[in-house]
UniProtKB/TrEMBL annotation, chain A:
Name of the protein in question: TRAP transporter large permease protein
Transmembrane segments: 6-35, 55-77, 97-121, 142-165, 171-195, 216-239, 275-296, 308-330, 337-356, 362-389, 401-425
Pfam families, per database record: DctM
Membrane topology: Multi-pass membrane protein
Gene Ontology cellular-component annotations: plasma membrane
Length: 430, 160
């Protein structure tokens, strides 16, 4: 057990020294296996992990969903979504904030990334909100928090990664995210109602539209609906595997971007290269995390931790609750993907042993990542908005987002208390 | 030199990704609509995945896109940060060089047994040795970064 704990410690020390986390995990994993089991097995297992992760058909689901998200972001589909939501609710107090959340939820159904959703919405929704006099804190807070819907509402890159490392059915994970995602969006809107009733001057009403304009705007989002229908409908209905659905989605998004003349040769190449880079970055992490997990699994730590925790006499739900608390706290300072990759080898076996559904735990994991992405001081969505909207200070974004962090924490509690919210839709599959 | 690396590796990885997309689309629509699949599309995807991942790896390192914990940057003096980055790059280079050597040798073992993919009988060895070469190239990038002024550091990966 000591070896594994030293391993974790070594990773943190290396990471603090600014060593990329993938290299820290990989190095510690190899050295760990080398010292405990010998150097030949260490090298052999490393070569095997690299080889198997590289040549894996099912893993092509990752770059394909990333590619789909990047094409969708270029295709300008977010404009139509925001416009449609605007025509319906924009004239109310805080209406544009509600429209932003609704558009984020819609965009989340064709994009699997929280950062991409927030980044796209900052270009689409922020200018409109700024124009009619929304406070920067409210508008950036809503965009940052709304962006996190991108990973709960399927497709979702992080669900794919969770599915791969825990061997959980990706289609079921996707189905499980639908209701929690919609619930989160609704609760965020409730929070906006409360926030804007306290200081209404921060969120003046927008323009009012006629019903014929509204229907016209709704017709504008057919592209999004078609993509959602084909990709998610296809996966949910068992017509496609997740990988096949991702391929169809990427192709569909590519065709949309092409039809809207959003793709010159240079832009196409740029999108492809960006997606390939993200893929490579992610696979480096995946490979390193697998090597490190192999090392941890050779040690007695997973067993001893399991024995210790089950010996505490806590009720199973309290144990999962404690894990969530750890995640929320860690998420404020750690990069969320690394946090999950490092802890899953320890936590996942315990959760399964306690008799919980891996799909449900996956949804909880996504929710803690959502919280981590927008909780100061280290929240990736906040940094991305700060980069894209340099005139808005990080402090202002923090001020706008914290009530919504609270909303996500409450949602996490609800999902923890009512597993049925996550598990009902997947149970209808097959 | 940076530019040519970006063009060569980027085009290689980007086109491989485009090929995966087209292949998956054609294979799936062919299978579902015309009951006609593309022979060996699965293994082609696997080979192309290797190209995407390892082809883009040098660029990820070049642009400093690996996930790093950089919160201490604010409190550390500039000279210390320069030294720290140089050291980190050297360690990363060493690690990648080792990996390059390992994969090259693994590839060589595959070359001896002559292992091929199941359907199309494509020899796997060059792809595995290619992984090694590209890891080596990435190691080189890290070494060069010790001397290059880093102008495009960005800590954000676009995955989450």
């Amino acid at each position: 057990m000591t070896e594994a704990l030293l391993g974790f410690l070594a990773i943190f020390v290396l990471a603090l020294m600014r060593m990329p986390l993938a290299f820290s995990m990989g190095l510690v994993g190899i050295v760990g296996i080398g010292l405990t089991r010998g150097w030949m097995p260490a090298l052999a297992s490393t070569a095997q992990v690299v080889h198997e992760t590289g040549f894996a058909y099912t893993l092509s689901v990752i770059p394909l969903f990333i590619l789909m998200g990047n094409f969708v972001a270029r295709a300008g589909l977010a404009h139509e979504l925001f416009h449609a939501a605007y025509t319906f609710i924009g004239h109310r107090r805080g209406g544009l904030a509600h429209a932003t959340i609704a558009a984020c939820a819609g965009f989340g159904a064709i994009c699997g990334s929280s950062i991409a959703t927030a980044a796209t919405m900052s270009k689409v929704a922020y200018p409109s909100m700024k124009k009619i006099g929304y406070s920067d804190a409210l508008s950036t807070g809503v965009i940052a928090a709304g962006g996190t819907l991108g990973i709960m509402i399927p497709p979702s890159t992080i669900m794919v990664i969770y599915g791969i490392i825990t061997e959980t059915h990706i289609g079921k994970l996707f189905a499980a995210g639908v209701i929690p995602g919609i619930l989160t969006a609704i609760l965020m809107m409730v929070a906006v109602v409360i926030m804007t009733s306290r200081d209404p001057e921060h969120a003046p009403p927008g323009e009012k539209f006629t019903w014929s304009q509204r229907w016209a705007a709704l017709r504008g989002i057919w592209g999004v609906l078609l993509l959602v229908f084909v990709v998610l409908g296809g996966i949910y209905g068992g017509f496609f595997t997740a990988t096949e659905g991702a391929g169809m989605g990427a192709m569909g998004a590519f065709l949309f971007a092409l039809a809207r003349k959003a793709l010159s040769k240079e832009v196409l190449l740029q999108v492809l290269i960006e997606s390939a880079r993200t893929t490579a970055m992610l696979f480096t992490l995946l490979i390193a995390a697998t090597i490190f997990a192999n090392f941890v699994n050779y040690t007695s730590l997973p067993f001893e931790l399991k024995d210790w925790i089950t010996g505490l006499g806590l009720s199973p739900i309290m144990i999962v609750g404690a894990m969530m608390l750890i995640y929320v706290l860690l998420g404020t300072v750690m990069e969320e993907l690394t946090m999950v990759l490092l802890t899953i080898p320890l936590f996942f076996p315990i959760v399964v042993q306690l008799g919980f559904d891996p799909v449900w735990f996956g949804v909880l994991i996504v929710m803690v990542i959502q919280i981590g992405l927008i909780s100061p001081p280290v929240g990736m969505n906040l940094f991305v908005l700060n980069t894209l909207l340099p005139k808005v200070g990080l402090g202002t974004i923090f001020r706008g987002v914290w009530p919504l962090v609270l909303v996500l924490v409450i949602t996490l509690g609800i999902l923890l208390a009512f597993p049925g919210l996550s598990l009902w839709l997947p149970s209808m599959m097959e | 030199m940076k530019k040519s690396l970006e063009i060569i590796c980027g085009t290689l990885a980007g086109l491989a990704l485009l090929a995966i997309m087209l292949l998956t689309f054609l294979d799936v629509s062919g299978r579902k609509l015309l009951s006609q699949s593309i022979t060996g599309s699965l293994e082609l995807t696997e080979l192309l995945m290797v190209v995407v991942i390892f082809g883009a790896l040098p660029l990820v390192s070049l642009k400093g896109e690996h996930v790093v914990f950089d919160s201490l940057d604010a409190v550390l003096p500039a000279w210390f940060q320069r030294l720290q980055r140089a050291l980190v790059d050297i360690v990363c280079a060493a690690l990648l060089m080792g990996l390059a050597y390992l994969m090259w040798n693994t590839g060589a073992e595959f070359a001896v047994t002559g292992e091929t993919t199941a359907q199309l009988k494509i020899t796997k060895a060059p792809f595995i040795q290619g992984m090694g070469l590209l890891c080596g190239l990435t190691a080189l990038v890290h070494l060069l970064k010790v001397f290059w002024q880093s102008d495009e550091e960005s800590a954000e990966g676009g995955t989450l």
